[in-house]
Design a protein that fits this description.
Blueprint (H helix, E strand, L loop, with lengths): L3 E4 L2 E2 L2 E2 L2 E2 L10 E4 L5 E2 L12 E4 L8 E2 L12 E3 L6 E2 L12 E5 L5 E3 L10 E4 L5 E3 L11 E3 L6 E2 L7 E4 L4 H9 L3 E3 L8
Parallel strand pairs: 1-5, 4-6, 5-7, 6-8, 8-10, 9-11, 11-13, 12-14, 14-16, 15-17, 17-18
Antiparallel strand pairs: 2-3
Length: 196
């Protein structure tokens, strides 16, 4: 049977708005986060190796930020849907999550992602939104199962995407320019036409 940890709405009559650095608990397979939570702090669930899924309250519109290394080395985590209104995602927030296959809603309003999926060897799909402006660090280093990434027109800076990963982009975009200059295959986002 799976063990799900529920982050309560209140403790001692006070609303739970932040999740701090919690002690490792490899028995927990699912985490349910209530709608009051605004911040998941740095290293909150680091090394929680049993966690496979993270669930949000259906009314979750308040989550503001996910801290640095918040889910670092959660080796059983398979998928993650980020809430729509997130403002910031910390450095290496999902790094070394070696079972992580799909992440959607990567769209922080501060526009920056850094080393986000470094070492996520099973990663197959990433969904970026149009608020993303900078892809910093080695966000896709060692993502050997990631064949291609859709990069929105909003992106104006890419530090590093391994040459083995194709970039899907619109003609004339920064992502197309990056691909041409760095040897990545570039596919047109509207179809499958190869740009270079």
């Amino acid at each position: 049977t799976s063990t799900i940890m529920h982050i309560p709405c209140t403790i001692g009559g006070k609303e739970v708005e932040e999740i701090g650095n919690l002690p490792d608990n490899s028995d927990v397979q699912g985490i349910y986060i209530n709608s009051n939570v605004k911040n998941i702090q740095n290293n909150a669930f680091e090394n929680w190796t049993g966690v496979q899924y993270v669930y949000y309250d259906t009314n979750q519109e308040e989550l503001v930020s996910i801290g640095d290394e918040a889910f670092l080395h959660c080796t059983s985590l398979e998928a993650f849907n980020l809430p729509n209104n997130i403002k910031g995602i910390g450095k290496k927030a999902f790094a070394l999550c070696v079972s992580l296959k799909k992440v959607y809603g990567v769209n922080p309003s501060d526009g920056i992602v850094t080393d986000l999926f470094e070492g996520c060897t099973a990663l197959e799909e990433v969904g970026f939104g149009d608020k993303v402006k900078e892809i910093c660090g080695n966000s896709f280093d060692k993502c050997k199962n990631l064949k291609s990434i859709n990069i929105p027109n909003s992106v104006t800076y890419i530090e590093s995407i391994p040459k083995e990963i194709s970039i899907c982009a619109q003609k004339g975009s920064y992502a197309e320019k990056y691909a041409k200059e760095n040897g990545n295959k570039c596919l047109e986002i509207a179809g499958v036409e190869v740009i270079n």
